[in-house]
Amino acid sequence: RGVIGASTTRSHYEQIMACLKAGKAVFTEKPVALNAQHLKEVIDYAKNSAIPFLVGFQRRFDRNFCALKAELDAGTVGAPRVIKVCSRDNPLPPLPYLATSSGLFHDMVCHDIDMIHYLTGQVPDSVFAIGHCYNKDIEAMNDIDTVVVTLSFPSGMLGTIDTSRTAPYGYDQRVEVMGEHGMAQAENEKESTLVVGTKEGFRTSRAKWTFSQRYEEAYLQSLEHFIVGMVRANKTDDPEQLQRHVILERVIAAAEESYKSGERVRLSK
């Protein structure tokens, strides 16, 4: 009744369309496609059918970010004014994977832009990105390993994203939102809540080492959401949520364009 797609990036579009046209529910890893036209084709087909379709943005199912969203939705800190997303991978992914990953923006920054949309429901009207590559093997792929993206929004909200392929202290994912009435943040997860204090000072547990440890529960929750939708023959995302993939792809592409051109890109154009 359904298919879980975890194949290489370049094969996603053809496999997704084949499964949807066969009437199969689809859970796929991102990116859905490697170009905007193919992405639109997939999303339009999914929206116009009754077939469950879900893209694996697992952070939307993480308990910490879900709790943060609940506070924002409740208005606890008021209208968001600044949102900061920290996203640092670890360890460095295998080079063969990076060579086919579609690059830092489409492989990692896409998660951060999706998280801002998940938490606030807002889409930026301009982006500016600066980056650097420390790893010579990645540089040879015409890619970068470190980037900072700034975003402005029609509401006046400002956003920053800092993304890195590596973090020697462990996997690091944090979000902070400052609003008119206060601040809310989801901190990074550690191996335990242990704190040890001695005359030498305080020592805490290490950060979880990699994404499979950090998001073990979130992956299960996202799969459960897909399976329940498939069994009940319900859409796993409403049309508006499906359309976000097309809208946010423009933001991701604009961030990459900004890095390459060195100029702010306005999405209203």
TrEMBL record:
What would be one Pfam family of this protein?
A: GFO_IDH_MocA_C3
InterPro entries tied to this protein? Gfo/Idh/MocA-like_OxRdtase_N (IPR000683), GFO_IDH_MocA-like_dom (IPR055170), NAD(P)-bd_dom_sf (IPR036291)
Spans through the membrane: none
Q: Which GO terms describe its molecular function?
A: nucleotide binding; oxidoreductase activity
Oxidoreductase found in the keyword field: yes
Record-level GO cellular component terms: cytoplasm
* Record has Phosphoprotein as a keyword: no
Which superkingdom is the protein from?
Eukaryota
GO terms, biological process: NADPH regeneration
Start and end residues of each Gfo/Idh/MocA-like oxidoreductase N-terminal domain: 6-56
Q: Give all residue intervals belonging to the GFO/IDH/MocA-like oxidoreductase domain.
A: 67-184
What keywords are annotated for this sequence in UniProt?
Oxidoreductase
What family does the Swiss-Prot or TrEMBL record give for this protein?
Belongs to the Gfo/Idh/MocA family.
| The name this protein goes by in its record | Inositol 2-dehydrogenase
